[in-house]
Amino acid sequence: MVTDNPARDPADTDLTRADSLAREIFAGVANKWALLLINVLADRTLRFTELQKQVGGISHKMLAQTLRHLERDGLVDRTVHPVVPPRVEYRLTEAGQALRATVNGMCAWTRTYLDHIEEARRRFDSTRAG
Amino acid sequence: MVTDNPARDPADTDLTRADSLAREIFAGVANKWALLLINVLADRTLRFTELQKQVGGISHKMLAQTLRHLERDGLVDRTVHPVVPPRVEYRLTEAGQALRATVNGMCAWTRTYLDHIEEARRRFDSTRAG
DNA sequence: CGGTATCCGACGAGATACTG
DNA sequence: CAGTATCTCGTCGGATACCG
């Protein structure tokens, strides 16, 4: 995606279509709730409420919505156990697992550069306001 | 970050603060424009208008805004050449380069699973509407 | 417990116009 | 060319309430 193609050949309508789809998928996955959910689902399979507890700050609604998206894109697998009370479990599919490696990288990056960023912000803010 | 800590020790206020900061940074970076910009800036240094052309679909405003954020967090370096007409160049800092690897991973993932996802969507949509 | 629907405020983001 | 400001509108996202 974004395979630096400044002047694309007008002929490959197929590639442009695939590219626009790629863009949409990328945008769908490049959002905090989706990535956070994937990160939390990394190794275990969790239930709806457990997920909400693990991912701090996500609302009931956004959790359901994001899970729907991830399910639709085949990143998480939704298993309903026909019992009462209902028991629904979520786990990563192979595609989700593949993405998870990337997410881990982003989390690691955040940890590594936390201080660096905090200081960069101080510099930026002072050299602007001052 | 999100180092599965269901019941955190109430004593380490420091860790919770760092964690909330980490969350904010993660969320700031986990958005399509930021990631797309980082991806485009991967190997070369680009000017404002060049960036806008490379990242298709981004508005003048969002480009400026996102660049400000990235600059503030020390991910991109902004160099102003005092000439006329103005020439401002953007390049990744070391922190940005480090994050870039992750972004590359996400782009690669998107390419790899494009077909997989497209089919998953068809299945999902049909087994729902049907 | 898991999920959807509705209402409503806040913010994201485009268009436009203006400065240096 | 690079950047900011304003205005506007659409969407995101939270709270709440209600079904299975």
Automatic annotation (TrEMBL), chains A, B:
It holds the Pfam family HxlR. Residues 18-118 form the HTH hxlR-type domain. PROSITE patterns: HTH_HXLR (PS51118). It comes from the Bacteria. InterPro entries: HTH_HxlR, WH-like_DNA-bd_sf, WH_DNA-bd_sf. Keywords: DNA-binding, Transcription, Transcription regulation. This is Helix-turn-helix transcriptional regulator. It comes from Streptomyces spiramenti.
